Amino acid sequence: MKKTIQNIEIEVSKGDIANQPDFEAVVNAANAKLAIGGGVAGAIHRAAGPELYEACKPLAPIAPGEAVITGAYNLPNDYVIHCLGPVYGRDKPEDKLLENCYKNALKRAEEKEVKSVAFPAISTGAFGYPIKEATKISFNTILAEIPKIKHLQKLKFVLFSEADLEIYKAMLSEV
Ligand code: AR6
Fold it and tell me: Per the structure, how many domains does the chain have?
């Protein structure tokens, strides 16, 4: 499902964040050390190859809400934007920290004049953020940032399950 909002195409779809060949940048739901992990981070590092972790090492550690950008190596993209989401119930205030992830990811993308970026649902896996609350934050943050965007033309939320996709679809149809 797609919708164009103020000249930016926003899409929600089910898929694997490590297989988004039509996007210049993909976002990683990273850990603080920017190391190979499970979930999104595991999929991205496995597909990108060991050079990605080598590129990450000098940029680590990062704090919740921060985002850094690297090349994408064997991934079919130019860049990986690594965000550390908040651990739900531990990193406070989690809503603000999750908002910072999306804001900072967009900032890193704009700095490189990226035209298309794909996001996973940051913090909603191992970090336990309830998907509905996280979905609202991701949409509200991106919609609030749109007026500042100069280069980005296409943004996609890549969801891993049908249930998560339905939540994102409902949110996109409301905006
Ligand atoms: N493509 C798209 N979405 C995915 C994929 C994939 N390949 N794999 C999982 N998801 P998570 P977090 C969904 O745990 O909560 C890691 O171990 C998943 O269903 O990847 O921010 C890191 O090393 C969920 O909805 O990220 C960190 O330690 C969402 O992506 C920690 O987990 C995020 O799940 C980060 O936890």
Answer: 1
Q: Which of 40, 52, 133, 135 gets mutated to test ligand 1 (max ligand atoms within 8 A of its CB)? A: 40
C-alpha triplet 134, 95, 122: angle, nearest 5°? 40
Residues of the chain with pLDDT under 50: none
Q: How far is the CA of 39 from the centre of ligand 1 (A)?
A: 4
pLDDT value at position 154?
Answer: 98
8 Å CB contact between 55 and 83 = no
- C-alpha pair distances (Å), 101 with each of 22, 67, 97, 98: 22, 6, 6, 5
Domain around 169: 2-174
* Residue among 153, 173, 170, 118 at smallest CA distance from 9: 153
pTM confidence score = 0.98
CATH number of residue 58's parent domain: 3.40.220.10
Token pair listed for 66 = 């921060």
pLDDT digits (tens, 9 = 90+) for 52-86: 999 999 999 999 999 999 999 999 999 999 999 99
- The pLDDT of residue 31: 98
What amino acid occupies position 66?
Answer: E
